[in-house]
Amino acid sequence: MENSEFAKIFYDNAKLLELGQENVFRIRAYQRAAQSIENYSGNIESVYKKGGIEALEAIPGIGKSLAEHIEEIIKTGKLKAEQSLFKKFPKTILDVISIPGLGPKTALLLYKKLKIDSIDKLKRAATEGKLMKVPGIRAKKIENILAGIELKKRNIGRFSIGTALPLAGSLVNGLKGIKEIDQIMPCGSLRRGQETIGDIDILITSKKPGVIMDAFVKLPQVDRVLGKGDTKTSVILKNGMEADLRVVEPSSFGSAIHYFTGSKQHNIMIRELAIKKGLKISEYGVFKGNKKIGGKTEEEVFRAVGLPYIPPELRQGRGEFEAAKKNELPRLIEIKDIRGDLHVHTKATDGSNTIEEMAEKARSLGYEYIAITDHSVSTRIAHGLTKEQLLSHIKKIEKESSKLGFRILKGSEVDILPDGRLDYPDEILERLDIVFASVHSNFKMERSQMTKRIITAMNNRHVSVLSHPTGRLIGEREPYAVDLDAVLKAAKDTGTFIELNSFPARLDLDDNHCKAAKDLGVLIAITTDAHVTDQMDNMKYGILTAKRGWLEKKDILNSQPFDKLLKTLALKRR
DNA sequence: GCCGTTTTCGGCCCGACTGTTTTCAGTCG
């Protein structure tokens, strides 16, 4: 069972407890546990299988009672406590609470007064005017509920960071000219480098917020305004994404970007730390009583609670405070540490550029080397190369390399066949400098079979890197069923490297498993899988994910200088 | 329901905006 499935049960349970008007702290405990499980780098079920209830209790936010709940879910597939709540409230009522602007209190009221327990019934009641009979609900609220239903229908799920980052850039550019702006910075999940973004958060410091709010809602990207005040304005953009703008005094810049960057869990934790020290932290600053003692920079906020600066990508409430206290924060990988791109395609298969063009792009990025890794014969849709074509491609790469005076590795992205064999025989593979092995077919295999298939391929001494290990396409295709813990362990045992594919829709390996790989001592190759020269700029997304996975320069295969890289690659082939 | 360098009991982050009210509850981030 995946962590996200456990998390969902706890999230749902929390919502049902809210409807039942349970103790708010008990509700929060469920939410906290759900979040903690979601963010946990190992698999919860394996943790239980290995160490039982006790091991579960070591996970932050999980105590005796919730550990027993997890055990129950593993053993029976469900949670009795939740099932009995479902007897009180139908399952579909959770959809009602998920409408933006409509929370548990209103949902409970609607259920009691009008027996509304689904979005359909809600919509009917709203259009037929029945909601007007409910105390506390008037025309404006009904309008908002209907708008919320529409919004939810349109805005299914979150947006890729590949969409959100450029969009945030264009919003910032649209505002930059305003002279009343002191500083401007995108914050939120974007600044934390999350793979998907729910909404764009932008922080501005200024003494004249009114002017800025007016300009913001008039930006061409804006579709409609959700709320507008002196310090906070929310809009829906034309692509359906929400954007929030917050304006504070210049003297609050540090505490404001800290607050606005989150995560929520991180903020709660730092505020709790502050309370213990007799301080109060808000977006306006660090306070001792009524006296402001810090907040101009983020460093000041951390210093107030006796901690070193924690980079935004680590602010997930998953161990960063403990590491900071012990002064054991990682020195995260930076894009400047990357010395080459190891996974790119050319015109020879499904790319758009020549070997030379890709190599020149690598040079322009300041890289020392590049590896050309076109598809193997079975990926017919991408015009995979036959053995003969690959051999002549290898010659061409050698020629280009000496012509350009740039180090170009001879590589291939080789299909892993359903039985775990590779798409080229060993005598071909041994002519290559680097071999990526990928699953591109038969995604629907049974979990244990898929795991075996991949591990079989990793056992081949010519396979250097396992490419996009889960095959997911964010928002389009679920990962195939595979036991990643077993795959990572096999990587360690066989000396195989693991790819972090920087394509914004892939970001595969994800951040959590990057951390798991690091803990095992498995090196990660951050690559772009570029099919066009421009896509080599996607490296930044991979770097963000790597940072979220606590990866350092030493954990990254392609941070190594060329000579060392060759030696490292050779280790696998011994 | 969780948790402990003030606590094994008694706490549990902080503030903005909206819509409905006559001072505030609900929702959100």
Outline the structure in words.
By secondary structure, the chain is of the alpha/beta class. It contains 24 helices and 17 strands. The strands form four sheets. It has a seven-stranded parallel sheet with strand order 11-12-13-14-15-16-17. Strands 2-4-7-6-5 form a five-stranded mixed sheet, with helices on both faces. α21 runs parallel beside α22 (511-520). It is globular and about 80 Å long. The model has no long low-confidence stretch (mean pLDDT 93). The structure holds one DNA strand of 29 nucleotides.
Describe the structure concisely for a colleague.
This protein is of the alpha/beta class.
Strand order of the largest sheet: 11-12-13-14-15-16-17
Based on secondary structure, the structural category is: alpha/beta
Residue-averaged pLDDT: 93
Q: What characterizes the major β-sheet?
A: 7 strands, parallel
**Number of helical regions:** 24
The separation of the N and C termini measures 37 Å
Radius of gyration: 26 Å
In which range does the helix fraction lie?
Answer: 40-55%
Low-pLDDT segments = none
Tell me the overall shape: globular
Query: DSSP strand (E) fraction?
Result: 5-15%
Number of strands: 17
